[in-house]
């Protein structure tokens, strides 16, 4: 049986980096050309360092989140490396302010780093610490391009690389443009490859219903976030009137948001984001909610830790492969034959490439 050696938090370090993406991601809200990340190191008195990172979407948030992580060092210093207890301590500190937004992002990153440290101290991978074992998780390639020709080229490359499904971002000026993109990708990948679609919250509810009914005839695998993420009633209406499964969840702030969404019947599928759902601790609770509701659960970003977490998620569905941290990792995770598998070394498997960290650092 794995036991935890005595170990306390000695400090926290947060470093801001802005790293290039292999391909810019074109969404209906604009193009994402770089990945603004805060790299988190949780230092312990045992000499073990736990690592995690968060993706803050805009470079404008890099310094505030990195500073918040650093500022929390004195708060947690001397505390046992016990993620649930650390989380409760930090939640109490932010009860009046609220633990969402940038605060929630920082807390989730600290939680992921704490779990990494704990697994390393126990000499096992995170998935084994959680009671599972590494196993291949079906992975889809999240495409960067949104126009038809470029998306088709990327999709063909993804299938050639072994991916069993692809996701394309929609939100063209009208539904005819969306159909053009989907059909171009279908022609590139063939009939046996699921095509998943994502609107990035760009439509009104009536427009989402109208476009969803058209996409029903195109055989896509799911329609993700067709309208505002927090509009659970709107998503429930779309779900009632559209046959294609509705995917929702990457923008839930923790399990309370998830519970409200599930209660509203807002989606057929759920997508868990390790950062926004509350780190490893939050994911475990969210996976239990998904299991109780019988909802297939996929991941959003954070491919390294998600491979561990999906392996112990009862309703595991798909891992989204969009590896934003690869440029600053010594050994990025590489899917094989369309599947991703968690690293079986102690911890999560994150080791920073310090030369790259210095190259992309934001002072």
| Overall mean confidence score, pLDDT | 96
Can you tell me the CATH architecture of the largest domain? Alpha-Beta Barrel
Tell me the distance between the termini. 44 Å
What is the highest CATH level, the class of the largest domain?
Alpha Beta
Work out the helicity level.
25-40%
Q: Into which percentage range does the β-strand content fall? A: 15-25%
Number of domains: 2
CATH superfamily of the largest domain: Enolase-like C-terminal domain
**Low-confidence spans: pLDDT under 50, at least 5 residues?**
none
Number of H- or I-type helical stretches = 13
What class, by secondary structure content?
Answer: alpha/beta
What is the CA-atom radius of gyration, in angstroms? 20 Å
Coarse shape: globular
Give the SSE string.
EEEHHHHHEHEHEHEHEHEHEHEEH
Largest sheet descriptor: 9 strands, mixed
Count the E strands: 12
CATH topology of the largest domain: the name is: TIM Barrel
Notes on the protein architecture:
- The chain has 363 residues and is of the alpha/beta class.
- It has 13 helices and twelve strands.
- α1 crosses α4, α4 packs across α11 (279-293) and α6 runs parallel beside α7.
- It is globular.
